[in-house]
Prior knowledge:
Largest sheet: 5 strands, parallel
Number of strands: 8
CATH class: Alpha Beta
CATH architecture: Alpha-Beta Barrel
Distance between the termini: 9 Å
Strand order of the largest sheet: 3-2-1-8-7
CATH superfamily: Glycosidases
Radius of gyration: 18 Å
Shape: globular
Amino acid sequence: MIRANLLHLSYNMWSDTPPPAxxxxxxxxxxxxxxxxxxxxxxxxxxxxxxxxxxxxxxIDVGDGVCYETRPEIVCEGAxxxxxxxxxxxxxxxxxxxxxxxLNFSACHDAWFGVYSRMLSTPRYYxxxxxxxxxxxxxxxxxxxxxxxxxxxxxxxxxxxxxxxVRQGALWWHDLNHLIACVERAGSRAWMWSDVLWHCEPxxxxxxVPLSVLQSNWYYGAQFPDxxxxxxxxxxxxxxxxxxxxxxxxxxxxxxxxxxVQYFRERIAPERLLGFMMADWRPTTPRWREAHLDAxxxxxxxxxxx
Length: 306
């Protein structure tokens, strides 16, 4: 069973502007940074703690944290050379941890995509998506899974950005399926966040999302089920036959992850419950060291006795 943890190489996912002068110190990292926000020692410490805790997969938010050969214009200062990435992936595997790439192509979380984040749904955009997916799959030596993100593409989530784009209806489904096809042609399996199901017509999801796509319905609260229907989306996915990796977090409350594991173990058939993922949503920087290590401890406690 998958016991995954999400870690960030790049953190250029939430804002397309640098931090304002009066930005609180603990909020500066969510703003766009021209240099990599990443600490090598903490990365290794987290991986070693994960291995000790029995976690077996790291989902790496790659973003603009690698010097791509096909798209060299997508890069931030301090980005890893391809050889460095391969070395770190080998380190993961040496610990018994499977590395899985993530490139979030949601218009809400694609500041890392540089100039292409302002070319959505154009031929140049589709070509760039294909090229990066192909290159990342090659760098990861043919990963069995590839997370494409695609969460929170709403106006509410983008209202503080300089450039806000919300694809809707047939266009959103078209672009999603373009990404899925690129991943599959590269020999991997697409994995996505499922929160579009909270807002769309259920029949639209069933018509447009192939059963082959691994689903991660995420929920970070303490109440199961919740009063907004976020948790219930996993019930629909189970009824329709999608395989799932439910995702919890210590972001809102520490008790979420353990409750999430217990709840979905009882509601998703074992053959479709591929595992669980922890996502604490902090940059891999020293300020958040204890948050990362605590999230790993929480995951270990939740899976104790498995």
